[in-house]
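Lab notebook, bench 4. Still working through the backlog of constructs that have no structural model yet. Next entry is a single chain of 310 residues. Request: give me the structure tokens for it.
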Amino acid sequence: MRQTASACAKVILCGEHAVVYGQPAIALPLSDVRVTATAEPAETLTFVLQDLNETFDLTQTHPITELAMRVCEALNVPPPPIAVHLSSQIPIASGLGSGAAIATAVARLLCQVLERPADPEFINTLVYESEKRFHGTPSGIDNTVIVYETPIYFVRDKPIERLTLIGSYTLLIGDTGVRAPTHIPVGDVRRLYEAEPDRIGPVIEAIGKISRDIRHLLLGGDASAIGRLMTDNHRLLQTLTVSSSELDSLVMAALKAGALGAKMSGGGRGGNMIALVTPQTRAAVKDTLLQAGAVHVLETTLQGHEFSSP
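Model written out:
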């Protein structure tokens, strides 16, 4: 009997990179963009990455096999004899949490197959360990927002705060088509901070203040003010050298077309940017992003009542 599990993509609204240094960040789930893991009977635990035409098992070193072994060891059971087929709608190395979503889907599926509870805290811990394998020093945002699938206000080493949103927010996510592994810009920012703490420290603190201000504004539904702060956040990320000419071009195009705000999202140096738009400007901004070089543009609307805190 086939069994399936899935996990969503995520997008960072604000605070990326600064979150590594104890500042807050806000991340949102993209529930309609997902990774799906399907289990079928097999002689041994095998993984089939359908989108990459790649197959491997536990004899091969890979972040997914390492995660699977950790799940089985934590549950004190042997690896199940299944083939896990993975199919993803999330572009790799694009800032949308592909690695964490794959790991989450795999962990959920293994718990299901092994008839064990897929406790979110348990899965979140394992996926974070997997993220270390992908990214070196991850912030913890990707695994947290994807595992819990809710907007979060995240401060490293502090309890998760699930956000209440007031109002409706439409985001356009423009893909540069440039794939950039997160660990490279993360490492570069660390070296920049260590070399110039007096200059870079205030930049990181300013990004943290933006996240705190946006958190407050989300409770009041002030999209225009949120948009302005998003654009300010992008300028600060440029100072951290994690933007790129492709990202800057798409951000500028979105703003000129009437977006309330725009910024890069995620690790940077490629991947995606996001633009906050209104129903009146949505179509024009989307068309402009495509004309400016976006490989594709994803649209998502977040309704506050969908994510109200328990």
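Notes after review: The first strand starts at residue 3 and ends at 14. The two ends are 35 Å apart (CA to CA). Flag for follow-up if needed.
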